[in-house]
Design a protein that fits this description.
single chain, 306 residues, alpha/beta, 13 strands, 28% strand, elongated
């Protein structure tokens, strides 16, 4: 395997009493889309901001495109692009002015008109930033991040707060970049985003990487199982649910229970009989194939979004 374009070894980051990043390690190969998947507060943004040179690591080693973000910040910024978790430009800055301004920061830059066309902003070139919709603002942010044709593109929660239609538009843009073999590191707490966009994923929780691999590899941890999510009228004991016929695992969640089963039909029959014997009732039942959230639940005992 070729030398990775990005290396992180035993990264640590603290904020006074908060230990945000606890020994995180991973590598990213050139042309790969790598995702940091985890709940809010897991340490994803702190990790990516160290890689971008925006924060100083307390311990560990980081290399991005052969540069140390702290020792070579100016050179690093010439070869990376970044879309931060929250971006706000002056209300009266026009779209084409934003591209000209950001282009002045780099030795090498792409043509503004090409980016306006690519991101569907030609008709908005003279519009003020305040006049753009949420989706148009995010497309402008991506255009600005690609101005210097970066070797590595960092996207921190690129679709957070966007409505489903705009989110799909951003997915299309990222998938196009993926087909072009652009190296991308993104953070997300959306399961479907990681499964759809990423070649490999590191699941992060409480500042640690708790699992890493391709979405298919990670979901293989729940291979040959079906997920059954149930809500009950009264609480039930995890141990009793785990002992049901066909059930391999059962966990209590904030809003119900999740059962993993290798034999779905016997498990449902056994569940109904058990509830009847306990004078309990089903409020709802959903059956689904395993997802990355199942991996997270199996490792942590809670939902990714809890």
């Amino acid at each position: 395997m070729a030398n990775p374009i990005l290396q992180v070894e035993n990264l640590e980051k603290r904020y006074e009493d908060v230990h945000a990043v606890r020994g995180v390690s991973f590598t990213v190969q050139e042309g790969e889309v790598f995702g940091l998947l985890g709940p809010n507060g897991a340490g994803k943004t702190s990790t990516i901001e160290v890689l971008e040179g925006l924060r100083v690591a307390d311990a560990g080693r980081v290399s991005v495109c052969g540069f140390d973000p702290q020792k070579d910040p100016n050179e690093l910024k010439q070869v990376i692009g970044a879309a931060l978790q929250a971006t706000s430009l002056p209300d009266k800055l026009r779209v084409h002015e934003a591209l000209l301004l950001f282009g002045s920061f780099y030795r090498r830059k792409r043509k503004s008109d090409e980016l306006l066309t690519r991101f569907g902003l030609e008709e908005k070139r003279n519009a003020f930033y305040s006049q753009l919709s949420g989706g148009q603002k995010q497309r402008l942010v991506l255009a600005l991040a690609l101005l210097n044709d970066p070797k590595v593109l960092f996207l921190d929660e690129p679709t957070a707060g966007l409505d489903p239609q705009v989110r799909r538009e951003i997915y299309d843009v990222i998938e196009e970049l993926r087909r072009e073999k652009k190296t991308i590191v993104l953070t997300t707490h959306y399961i479907e985003e990681a499964e759809r966009l990423c070649d490999r994923v590191a699941i992060v929780d409480h500042g640690k990487v708790i699992a890493e691999g391709s979405p298919r590899e990670l979901k293989a941890r729940s291979a040959n199982t079906t997920r059954i999510e149930v809500r009950l009228s009264k609480p039930a004991a995890d141990t009793a649910l785990k002992g049901l016929d066909g059930v391999t695992d059962a966990r209590e969640l904030s809003d119900g229970y999740v059962l993993h089963c290798q034999r779905t039909a016997p498990a449902i029959v056994a569940l109904v009989k058990h509830l009847e014997s306990q004078n309990n009732e089903l409020v709802s039942l959903e059956i689904a194939t395993p997802s990355l959230e199942d991996v997270f639940i199996e490792l942590t005992g809670r939902r990714l979004r809890d």
